[in-house]
Amino acid sequence: MEISKDLMAASSTSLVLAILVEGDSYGYAIIKRVKELSDGRLEWTDGMLYPVLHRLERLGHVEARWEVAESGRRRKYYRITSGGRAQLAEERRQWQAVDATLRGIWSALSTSVPVSHPAPAAPFPQGA
Amino acid sequence: MTTPGQEAALEDQIDQWRNYLRRRQAIHSVDVAELEDHLREQIAGLVDAGLGVDEAFLVAVKRMGNLDALSREFAREHSDRLWKQLVVAPSAGGEAHGRTRKDAIVAFCLAVAAGLLIKAPTLFGMRWGQDEGFYGRNLSFFVLPLLTGYFAWKRGLDTRTVRWLVAAFAAAVVIANIHPFVKLGSTEVLTALHLPIALWLVVGVAYAGGRWAQVSGRRAHQRIRLHTQPRGGAGRERDPAGQPGLVHRALREASARAGFVRAHRTLADGLPAGLCRVGGHRPGRLSAAVPLRLTGVGNYLAAPWSIAGCRAPGACT
């Protein structure tokens, strides 16, 4: 299943902020976590995460700092701020509203129209 | 496990990728460092999963996404950075980066010189507020010769052209200062108004690099896009047998038309596969023997070439 670009873009802020609530993190690890959480259904183009992170930084939702990672390379870590937590709570309310609305219509539909479940044609390619 | 040879090749490829990314005005070097950390980690992960180093590099670059789209995203987020694009010409790697800096230094020095020059007449007893006639007639001489000098330096004009430019300015200085003007009379006002316009033409000659007579020279550069799929891989374009390949023929044609040629192959995701600069070749002098330097991933994939022919070595973008 391919999730549309618009939907991915819309959910990116909430996802990134929620992952940062779990602990400080950096780009590559955030993308890995998104893959894990979505069972590989949400696949971001890696580079596109960074403009999102930078926007959150500009808005004050996250703070960034450079640290030397165990690999010896410099790495940019992100930490969620209190403003970011408030933003996440707000986004969560909004998503719950959207979700509740959709659930309502799904259940109304499922009583009248059967939902078809297409069998996956091929296993989703994971990794390389 | 990777061998030292593979390691070096990987570093080379990452270098190339980094340099390519650095040319994007919207992506700052600190962002490039962040993206590079990501790329390296991705490569390490893929190598651990059993991929070869060069395969891992290709996959990691592909996953990073189309660099044009990425650079657009960065530009949207950091729109404040884009003004630089207007001032600093897009560079073609480290060498051009140094050139941009040198340009800036020369321009700054000339600006300081213009500032000093406008103060110079006070040494001869002229007063800014009192000798309006003198300053009005000579205003263009404080700025335009330096601007012309900048272009003369930038375009690398030959001494003959420079001599003509100097002569034009000298003649203008003499006329503007030995004619017995009536203070603030019509002749003086007309001179003050029209001299800058006449001298602007001289600046134009220097700007055009002495090719003001050539109509085609005003078209700064032309671009030829060539979509080829070199058969048998890119290696064929090296022409070991001296038989010009498609790319060579196009290069030769472009150089005959323009004078300077810059060519590079572009992968679908925007990575330069092979970069080939043929600088300093006058029309007709580019021979089929000019080697195309194809490095990195260019040896694996066939991709369209972009060949830009231009009038000056710096104008190829």
List keywords for this structure.
heterodimer, A: 128 residues, mainly alpha, Arc Repressor Mutant, subunit A, two-stranded antiparallel sheet, 4 helices, 2 strands, elongated, disordered C terminus, B: 317 residues, alpha+beta, 3 domains, four-stranded antiparallel sheet, 54% helix, 8% strand
Question: How are the elements arranged and paired?
Answer:
The complex is a heterodimer of chains A (128) and B (317).
Chain A lengths: L4 H18 L4 H11 L11 H10 L3 E7 L5 E7 L1 H31 L16
Antiparallel strand pairs in A: 1-2
Chain B lengths: L3 H19 L6 H20 L4 H12 L2 H11 L5 H5 L6 H26 L12 H24 L3 H20 L7 H22 L13 E6 L19 H13 L1 E7 L5 E7 L26 E6 L7
Antiparallel strand pairs in B: 1-4, 2-3, 2-4
In short:
The complex is a heterodimer of chains A (128) and B (317). Chain A has 128 residues and is mostly helical.
How would you explain this protein's 3D organization?
The complex is a heterodimer of chains A (128) and B (317). Chain A is mostly helical and 128 residues long. Chain A has a single domain, classed as Arc Repressor Mutant, subunit A (Orthogonal Bundle). Chain A has helices at residues 5-22, 27-37, 49-58, 82-112, and strands spanning 62-68, 74-80. A two-stranded antiparallel ribbon of chain A has the order 1-2. In chain A, a hairpin with a 5-residue loop joins strand 1 (62-68) and strand 2. The longest helix of chain A has 31 residues, at 82-112. Mean pLDDT of chain A is 85; it is low at 120-128. Chain B is of the alpha+beta class and 317 residues long. Chain B has three domains: 4-87, no CATH class; 94-207, no CATH class; 219-315. Chain B has ten helices and four strands. Chain B has helices spanning 4-22, 29-48, 53-64, 67-77, 83-87, 94-119, 132-155, 159-178, 186-207, 246-258, and strands spanning 221-226, 260-266, 272-278, 305-310. Chain B has a four-stranded antiparallel β-sheet, with helices on both faces. In chain B, a hairpin with a 5-residue loop joins strand 2 (260-266) and strand 3. Chain B is elongated. The two termini of chain B are 40 Å apart. Residues 86-94, 215-244, 264-305 and 312-317 of chain B have low confidence and may be disordered.
